[in-house]
Amino acid sequence: MTRVEAILEDPFYRDWVSQIRTREENRKFCRHDFQHFLDVARITYILLLESGAIKRFTEENDLHLKLARELIYAAALLHDIGRWKQYDTGEDHSDVSAELAAGLLAKAGFNPAEVRIITTAIREHRRRTENMSLLGEYLYRADNLSRMCSRCAAGDECYKYDEMETGRRVLIY
Questions:
Q1: How many domains does the chain have?
Q2: CA-CA 20 to 30 A from 31: which of 20, 21, 46, 125?
Q3: CA dist., res. 133 & res. 4, Å (int)
Protein backbone atom coordinates (compact mmCIF):
# COMPACT_ATOMS: atom_id res chain seq x y z
CA MET A 1 0.00 0.00 0.00
CA THR A 2 2.70 2.43 -1.04
CA ARG A 3 0.22 5.15 -2.01
CA VAL A 4 -1.46 4.98 1.40
CA GLU A 5 1.95 5.23 3.04
CA ALA A 6 2.59 8.34 0.93
CA ILE A 7 -0.58 9.89 2.38
CA LEU A 8 0.50 9.07 5.94
CA GLU A 9 3.96 10.57 5.38
CA ASP A 10 2.71 13.71 3.66
CA PRO A 11 3.49 16.85 5.69
CA PHE A 12 0.06 18.32 4.95
CA TYR A 13 -1.69 15.18 6.24
CA ARG A 14 0.41 15.22 9.40
CA ASP A 15 -0.32 18.92 9.89
CA TRP A 16 -4.09 18.44 9.45
CA VAL A 17 -4.11 15.59 11.99
CA SER A 18 -2.22 17.88 14.37
CA GLN A 19 -4.68 20.74 13.70
CA ILE A 20 -7.59 18.45 14.59
CA ARG A 21 -5.84 17.27 17.78
CA THR A 22 -5.30 20.89 18.86
CA ARG A 23 -8.93 21.88 18.28
CA GLU A 24 -10.27 18.78 20.05
CA GLU A 25 -8.11 18.99 23.18
CA ASN A 26 -11.08 19.86 25.39
CA ARG A 27 -13.76 18.08 23.37
CA LYS A 28 -15.99 15.88 25.54
CA PHE A 29 -17.27 13.91 22.57
CA CYS A 30 -15.31 11.40 20.48
CA ARG A 31 -12.10 12.61 18.97
CA HIS A 32 -11.09 12.41 15.32
CA ASP A 33 -7.58 11.11 15.65
CA PHE A 34 -5.46 8.66 13.72
CA GLN A 35 -6.84 5.74 15.76
CA HIS A 36 -10.37 6.67 14.64
CA PHE A 37 -9.24 6.89 11.00
CA LEU A 38 -7.58 3.47 11.23
CA ASP A 39 -10.59 1.91 12.99
CA VAL A 40 -12.88 3.19 10.23
CA ALA A 41 -10.53 1.80 7.56
CA ARG A 42 -10.44 -1.65 9.12
CA ILE A 43 -14.17 -1.79 9.80
CA THR A 44 -15.03 -0.61 6.28
CA TYR A 45 -12.79 -3.28 4.79
CA ILE A 46 -14.20 -6.00 7.05
CA LEU A 47 -17.80 -5.00 6.31
CA LEU A 48 -17.17 -5.05 2.57
CA LEU A 49 -15.44 -8.44 2.80
CA GLU A 50 -17.99 -10.10 5.08
CA SER A 51 -20.99 -8.84 3.14
CA GLY A 52 -19.53 -9.97 -0.18
CA ALA A 53 -19.86 -6.40 -1.46
CA ILE A 54 -16.10 -6.21 -2.02
CA LYS A 55 -16.61 -8.27 -5.18
CA ARG A 56 -19.19 -5.78 -6.45
CA PHE A 57 -16.91 -2.86 -5.52
CA THR A 58 -13.95 -4.34 -7.40
CA GLU A 59 -16.06 -5.21 -10.45
CA GLU A 60 -17.87 -1.85 -10.64
CA ASN A 61 -14.58 0.03 -10.44
CA ASP A 62 -12.46 -2.43 -12.42
CA LEU A 63 -10.09 -2.98 -9.51
CA HIS A 64 -8.11 -5.88 -8.15
CA LEU A 65 -8.63 -6.64 -4.45
CA LYS A 66 -5.26 -5.11 -3.52
CA LEU A 67 -6.19 -1.84 -5.24
CA ALA A 68 -9.66 -1.90 -3.69
CA ARG A 69 -8.10 -2.19 -0.23
CA GLU A 70 -5.89 0.80 -1.01
CA LEU A 71 -8.90 2.92 -2.01
CA ILE A 72 -10.82 1.85 1.10
CA TYR A 73 -7.94 2.72 3.42
CA ALA A 74 -7.26 6.01 1.66
CA ALA A 75 -10.93 7.05 1.98
CA ALA A 76 -11.06 6.14 5.67
CA LEU A 77 -7.75 7.79 6.55
CA LEU A 78 -8.94 11.01 4.90
CA HIS A 79 -12.68 11.05 5.68
CA ASP A 80 -12.45 13.50 8.63
CA ILE A 81 -9.25 15.31 7.70
CA GLY A 82 -11.12 18.61 7.22
CA ARG A 83 -12.50 18.66 10.77
CA TRP A 84 -10.06 21.39 11.81
CA LYS A 85 -11.53 23.72 9.21
CA GLN A 86 -15.09 22.94 10.32
CA TYR A 87 -14.10 24.02 13.84
CA ASP A 88 -12.65 27.26 12.46
CA THR A 89 -15.21 28.24 9.82
CA GLY A 90 -18.30 26.06 10.28
CA GLU A 91 -17.91 24.52 6.82
CA ASP A 92 -19.11 20.92 6.49
CA HIS A 93 -16.04 18.78 7.17
CA SER A 94 -17.07 16.12 4.65
CA ASP A 95 -16.85 18.63 1.79
CA VAL A 96 -13.64 20.15 3.13
CA SER A 97 -12.14 16.69 3.66
CA ALA A 98 -12.96 15.69 0.08
CA GLU A 99 -11.35 18.88 -1.27
CA LEU A 100 -8.21 18.44 0.82
CA ALA A 101 -8.07 14.73 -0.04
CA ALA A 102 -8.22 15.31 -3.79
CA GLY A 103 -4.87 17.08 -3.92
CA LEU A 104 -3.24 14.67 -1.50
CA LEU A 105 -4.49 11.65 -3.43
CA ALA A 106 -3.20 12.95 -6.75
CA LYS A 107 0.17 13.70 -5.16
CA ALA A 108 0.27 10.15 -3.73
CA GLY A 109 -0.27 8.66 -7.21
CA PHE A 110 -4.01 7.94 -7.34
CA ASN A 111 -5.46 8.40 -10.83
CA PRO A 112 -8.45 10.71 -11.49
CA ALA A 113 -11.00 7.86 -11.45
CA GLU A 114 -9.68 6.63 -8.09
CA VAL A 115 -9.70 10.18 -6.69
CA ARG A 116 -13.34 10.52 -7.75
CA ILE A 117 -14.32 7.23 -6.06
CA ILE A 118 -12.57 8.19 -2.82
CA THR A 119 -13.72 11.82 -2.66
CA THR A 120 -17.32 10.82 -3.42
CA ALA A 121 -17.25 8.39 -0.49
CA ILE A 122 -15.74 11.04 1.78
CA ARG A 123 -18.50 13.53 0.83
CA GLU A 124 -21.14 10.87 1.58
CA HIS A 125 -19.82 9.56 4.90
CA ARG A 126 -21.87 11.81 7.22
CA ARG A 127 -25.43 10.82 6.41
CA ARG A 128 -27.23 7.98 4.74
CA THR A 129 -28.94 9.02 1.51
CA GLU A 130 -30.44 7.28 -1.46
CA ASN A 131 -28.09 6.49 -4.33
CA MET A 132 -24.95 6.53 -2.20
CA SER A 133 -21.85 5.03 -3.70
CA LEU A 134 -20.97 1.60 -2.34
CA LEU A 135 -17.82 2.89 -0.67
CA GLY A 136 -19.71 5.88 0.75
CA GLU A 137 -22.35 3.62 2.26
CA TYR A 138 -19.81 1.34 3.93
CA LEU A 139 -17.65 4.24 5.09
CA TYR A 140 -20.74 5.78 6.69
CA ARG A 141 -21.56 2.54 8.50
CA ALA A 142 -17.99 1.99 9.66
CA ASP A 143 -17.69 5.57 10.91
CA ASN A 144 -20.67 4.98 13.20
CA LEU A 145 -19.60 1.49 14.26
CA SER A 146 -16.10 2.67 15.16
CA ARG A 147 -17.30 4.41 18.32
CA MET A 148 -17.96 3.01 21.77
CA CYS A 149 -21.02 5.22 22.04
CA SER A 150 -22.88 2.98 24.48
CA ARG A 151 -20.17 3.65 27.08
CA CYS A 152 -19.68 7.34 26.44
CA ALA A 153 -20.20 9.74 29.34
CA ALA A 154 -21.29 12.45 26.88
CA GLY A 155 -23.84 10.20 25.15
CA ASP A 156 -26.83 12.08 26.55
CA GLU A 157 -25.72 15.16 24.63
CA CYS A 158 -24.60 13.41 21.43
CA TYR A 159 -26.61 13.88 18.25
CA LYS A 160 -25.85 10.29 17.17
CA TYR A 161 -28.09 8.88 19.88
CA ASP A 162 -31.83 8.61 20.23
CA GLU A 163 -33.86 7.56 23.25
CA MET A 164 -36.07 4.53 22.87
CA GLU A 165 -39.31 4.14 24.82
CA THR A 166 -37.43 1.90 27.25
CA GLY A 167 -35.09 4.79 28.06
CA ARG A 168 -32.15 2.96 26.50
CA ARG A 169 -29.96 4.96 24.16
CA VAL A 170 -29.47 3.60 20.67
CA LEU A 171 -27.08 4.71 18.01
CA ILE A 172 -28.74 6.19 14.93
CA TYR A 173 -27.17 5.05 11.67
A1: 1
A2: 46
A3: 21
Domain of residue 17 covers 2-171
Compute the half-sphere exposure of residue 151: CA atoms within 13 Å on the CB side of its CA: 3
Hey, which residues does 171 pair with through a beta bridge? Answer: 161
DSSP 87-152: HHH---HHHHHHHHHHHHHHHHT--HHHHHHHHHHHHHTTS--TT--HHHHHHHHHHHHTS-GGG-
Q: Using alpha carbons, select from 87, 74, 89 the residue that is nearest to residue 139.
A: 74
Kindly report, residue by residue over 133-147, the tens digit of the pLDDT.
Answer: 999 999 999 998 887
CATH number at residue 135: 1.10.3210
Contact 94, 125 (CB under 8 A): yes
Q: Are 171 and 160 in contact (CB under 8 A)?
A: yes
Flag the least confident range among 81-95, 136-150, 159-173: 159-173
Beta bridge partners of 170: 162
Q: In 3-state terms, the chain is what percent helix, strand and coil (to 5)?
A: 65, 5, 30
Rounded distance between C-alpha atoms, residue 161 and residue 22, angstroms: 26
- What's the mean pLDDT in 54-82? 94
Judge residue 111's burial from the number of C-beta atoms within 10 Å of its C-beta, 0-12 exposed, 13-18 middle, 19 or more buried: exposed
